[in-house]
Amino acid sequence: MLLEKKTAIVTGGSRGIGRSICLALAKEGANIVTCYANGAEAANETVKMCEELGVKAKAVKADVANSEDVTNMVNMVKEEFGSIDILVNNAGITKDNLMLKMTEEDFDQVIDTNLKGAFLFTKNVSKIMLKQRSGKIINISSVVGVRGNAGQVNYCASKAGLIGMTKSVAKELASRGITCNAVAPGFIETDMTAKLPEAVVDEMLKTIPMKSMGQGEDVANLLIFLASENARYITGQVICVDGGMAM
Ligand code: NAP
Predict the structure, then answer these.
(1) Per-residue pLDDT tens over the stretch 181-213
(2) Which CATH superfamily is domain 7-241 in?
(3) Residue 109 pLDDT
(4) From the CB of residue 97, how many other CB atoms can be counted at a distance below 10 Å?
(5) What is the DSSP string of 11-77?
(6) Where are the domains of the chain?
(7) What is the DSSP secondary structure assignment for residue 7, as one 8-state letter?
């Protein structure tokens, strides 16, 4: 197993890509701590699934955009689990609309959750990783953070921001044995994409060379590699998991 005795924080592990990441890391032996916004039942289900794989797991209600929630969660993990070896900033939301119709509130909410949330976790966790002189930070961005997308000014700005943050954090922490990379999924089958109208889905599929949607496991498989020592010499990178969409 690649991640035995490691502890991973995965934000937003109650469902979708986050749950797939929790399970993939747990299968490799990592203890898992995840957080959720409202989905307590689903998050506890993720915990149960991880425990069945033989690792320690815990879910806490913590709003990634709330500084106090984040600090409390990180302190709890350090106290109860001893170390924090892997941080996956996965929690994210969409509030889509054309720019001229987008409210300031919807803009702020998406930036706060998707971008500020990753900043708060990275800041808190990196203090612990710096003392350990090791750690793997992985930010879940998106292909639309690279390419832009009509109707998603807020979301694309947050995901492009994550790429800038990834490269800056990578430069700040590289000499201390800490890597920071971004994963940019394309079109993945989760609750987030389930709410899109069929016509939008059909148009999206036309832009994917592999002509199909990806699964959470497709993203999670890359996470196992990036979180392991096999990716020791890789930092500041953005890797697309998108069936060729962003080429
Ligand atoms: P999802 O199914 O909607 O799940 C989102 C997760 O984030 C849930 O666990 C949710 O918890 C959690 N969350 C949301 N707001 C939160 C907050 N303020 N504090 C704590 N947790 C919060 O989304 P997904 O499709 O799996 O997406 C996961 C990540 O991949 C996101 O960052 C998304 O932007 C990115 N991504 C997705 C796709 C795609 O095609 N699906 C493509 C590119 C990038 P609750 O259950 O409590 O709400």
Answers:
(1) 999 999 999 999 999 999 989 999 999 999 999
(2) NAD(P)-binding Rossmann-like Domain (3.40.50.720)
(3) 98
(4) 15
(5) ES-SSHHHHHHHHHHHHTT-EEEEEESS-HHHHHHHHHHHHTTTS-EEEEE--TT-HHHHHHHHHHH
(6) 7-241
(7) E
Query: What are the structure tokens assigned to 90, written together?
Result: 């996965």
* Ligand 1 contacts CB of residue 15 (under 6 A): yes
Q: What is the pTM of this model?
A: 0.99
- Closest approach atom of ligand 1 to CA 17: 26
Torsion of CA 198, 202, 207, 208, to 10 degrees: 90
State pLDDT tens for residues 167-176: 999 999 999 9
- Please state the atom number of ligand 1 nearest to the C-alpha of residue 219: 30
> How far is C-alpha 200 from the chain's CA centre?
24
CA dihedral 132, 5, 78, 121 (to 10 degrees): 80
Element (H, E) at 202: helix 198-206
Pocket test for ligand 1, best of 10, 36, 89, 210 (most atoms within 8 A of CB): 36
For Cα atoms 39, 44, 46, give the angle at the middle one, nearest 5 degrees: 95
Q: Which tokens hold the place of 48?
A: 């149960």
89 HSE (CA, 13 A, CB side): 37
Tokens of 216: 């959470």
